[in-house]
Amino acid sequence: MKHHFSVAVGPTGFRIGAAWRAPIAALEQLYAAYPKPEEGLADFTVRLEPQTRLRLWLRPSVAINGDFMLPDALPLPLAQGVLAAEMGMNLQMAMGQRHFLLLHASSVERDGKALILTGESGSGKSTLSALLGERGWRFMGDEFALIDPVSGLAYPFPRPISLKNEAIAVMTDALPADRFGPLLPGTPKGDIRHMIPAFSAIAAMSVPARPALILFPRFGYAADVRDMGGSEVFVRLTQASTNYVALGERGFDALSNLVTQVPARAIDYPDTENAVALVEKLWAEYT
Amino acid sequence: MRRDVEALYAADPRTGFRICPLDSLTAYYHRRSGVTHVVADPVPQILTALHGTPLSLEALLAHLVAADGLIITEDSKAALAERLEELCTIGLVLRI
After folding, report:
1. Cross-chain Cβ contact B22/A253 below 8 Å
2. ipTM of the complex as predicted
């Protein structure tokens, strides 16, 4: 590819190639504090290419290709090239990562222990992890929690946080402008703006933590905490995992250990301040 | 119903599963198929009873009553036969 960029996020190295300079320049700004893959070797490749040769110049649109591809994925406008790269990186992880049990979850760490937040899109797990990462917790990731099937430890994947819609103002009001990428309006997921994690979180991207609490947040309801049975937690985590089936017995063992050893609760919250208060209360109670 | 009386049922050997009791449900990872099943009582008791020694429907019912306190009703035998057929269909139990 004409332009390319390599980066390590947690234990995984990526090489991103693009037919245009602009998305690579944007990635270089977002990932300026991140290391390169060890010995220059990337685990996964993402290619941002024009849908057709003509689309290199005329209303350029970015098709996401790489080691793993979704043939039906719609191309994005060039202005959303960073989002295309992010989606490509997520896809490689979701389909290709075999070393870890992947949970679609955000995670933060304190005192060597990890809090895992998992839920459907819109549950607020990205915003919560971003906020906690600025309030005394170490941000570990907003997309994937990586569970090592051997040790049971959670490994970070602290890529820039993908803030959406109302969550953008919550964080831009609290942090300086140089912590954010450009606003990407009108993406398939609404408005998106990337937030660069605290430097300390990036510097500690290879330091795992022992899972100590799993929360299933739900935004838009009165503050509440609900106990969950082991079977509900087990089933919801299999649904939250992108590679549970692919890992076979290793996946079952990793998930069984997580469910039987780590307390889990469902929480409802009306706003982020209530959510932070609930998290702190439950953390004090269960760790 | 002569076939049901005479048929013997056996579970895959215990080493064929990974088992995780969760709450009122139990998760089984079936090594041969690579499929996870989350099952309710009396499936764990059935699989335990059928490990090692193949049993007929009648003998299995008697075992579940004696060992697990299963309460017999007039539907018990038919219900157990249905469960066994389901377990045969998903491969956790074999008809031999």
Report:
1. no
2. 0.85
